[in-house]
Design brief:
single chain, 620 residues, alpha+beta, Immunoglobulin-like, Neutral Protease, domain 2, 8-stranded mixed beta sheet, 18 helices, globular, zinc
Length: 620
Amino acid sequence: MNGRPLRYILDLTFDKEFKSFSGSVQIIVEGFKEKEIVNFDAKPNLDIQNVYINDEKVVFERSESIITTCCSIIPQKFCFNFSGTFNSGDHGIIVKDNCVITQCEADFASCIFPCFDNPENRVKISLTIHHDKEHVALSNCLPEYITEKDGITTTIFKETLPIPLYLFAFCIGKFDCVETVTKRGLPIKIYSIPEMTEYANSITENIPIIIDYLENYTETPLPLEVLQFLICREQTGMENFGLIIYGPNSSLTNMKKAREATINDAFSVFVHEIVHHWISCIVSISDWESVWIKEGFTTFMTRYVLSKTFPSLDKANNYIIREFLPTLKMNVKRPILYCNMTVQDYFNTDTSYTKASCLFHTLFQWFGEENFRKNICELIKNLYLADVNLEKFAKFMKLDENFIQKWLKYSGIPTLVYDGSNITNNSDLEIPIHVTIFNENNFDVKKLFIKEKDTELIYNAAVINNNVESLTFVRYSREYLMKLEKLFDELVINENHVALLIYSYTSAYESHEIDAKEIIELLYLTRRYESKQVVQPAIQILFKVCEDVKSEFDPNYLFNYFDVRGKEIGCNAGPDKIMLIINRLLPYIEIDKITQSMQGKFGKNAIKAIRTKIFNHGKK
């Protein structure tokens, strides 16, 4: 397409019962040529009556979601007359709680009017809504004029700043309103349906604190006359520029019965949408491939902002549970970006939100708190009311674009970085390995040095490798593992790390990404960790792989592992559980060695019972 839209002039009419709607839109454009074929997005819920080019009626063709017309003249504007029905679900234009709500992200503005429904064009939007006089209309900007005639109110809104269509929004209904203001004087209006008024009142004092912090952090004040919120029920949160819409769980309609955790989770969504006003609104995305930038940054930053502003609501301590661990449990083969993605694929919660937030968490640790902030400020300053993509992101974050590409297209999460920039042919040269390690509360990046000759397997695995694998090298030869056993001890902060590592390997084994040999090697390397949180997942995966291993391993290999864990397992489960394990180990371990390892750990009767069962098993 040669041309681009500059401005939308939208006029919509709604009946009192919200059964349907009708309207017209003028699209002011530039760059289109005579005889050019132009395609517009229009979802199936829209019925297109007429199409005009420069006020001249033209012929058009309609497919399921596309309107096509040919420019008989050089166009300065396209005009459409249309009517529409409301959508079901949470996207497009919907009726919920007796009010009209819009959700244009990702490509659902075309449920409301014909348009070029992509993120690459930032356009100004002028909106007029005709609605019942008992209702209030809200949009991205404040009304400029409100008139009433014959029971119909006409609300004409001020023109928006240039925004991508996914940030356009309006709503119509009966709303309560509470107002507050930030330190620098930005008005805040929190609208709500009557059932959510009590909840709206409960967060009124907190909202300005978040905005004040972010304006200071980014060194960029919000370019808005007012920031509005609409609180409804059971509605996906959306950062529409100037009008944040979110419907928390309906349990919050009764604050006395709502659990504090649920309230905190709901407030964190509002924080998420406020953060988006810097990365998504002030700086938007240039294409759907860049969704991970805005969602990954905002998911990470929400935890960070809460830790600074409301320690009692601080989610940072839950980072492993809320972002990292879910990433381990998801399909480890799914990267953030892959071939043949649909628009909705780019908004996958596991990848563009959760996994991408892990990436930003690693970048934060990599740069350090202040340098990370400076890079974000520079990005916002240089791309103010413009868009960002991977190339621009890498430039202002001072990263190599190819380096980030490998992160985005790799199936794991970013934890290990191999810096091969100074590689020579000297196999004894020590080179830096940056490793992401963590304890219960946060991640740290540790810089280690290892000889070049020992890095080949790390490099071949991936620049950034899978899951918790700052320990990537434990996935390979046993000889290599033994060399690095000391390094493993340095990397593992505590047993939470070991447990997560075992869970991640279990997931990889079940999806056939790794084989039984790699599982056993990991269990051997982690054999010294005896807490229940490590032993339980270790035994579970041991059950799964023992029969696959057969005679491939040295019998003492498994015996050593079993010997260390015998007491812990026995205390938890007794001889019957031990017998299940023994049945798995019989092909590999001598009976005398098994019973020898139990001396002092079990009573004589238990050992006798176990020996009898082993003997009977042998007779079978």
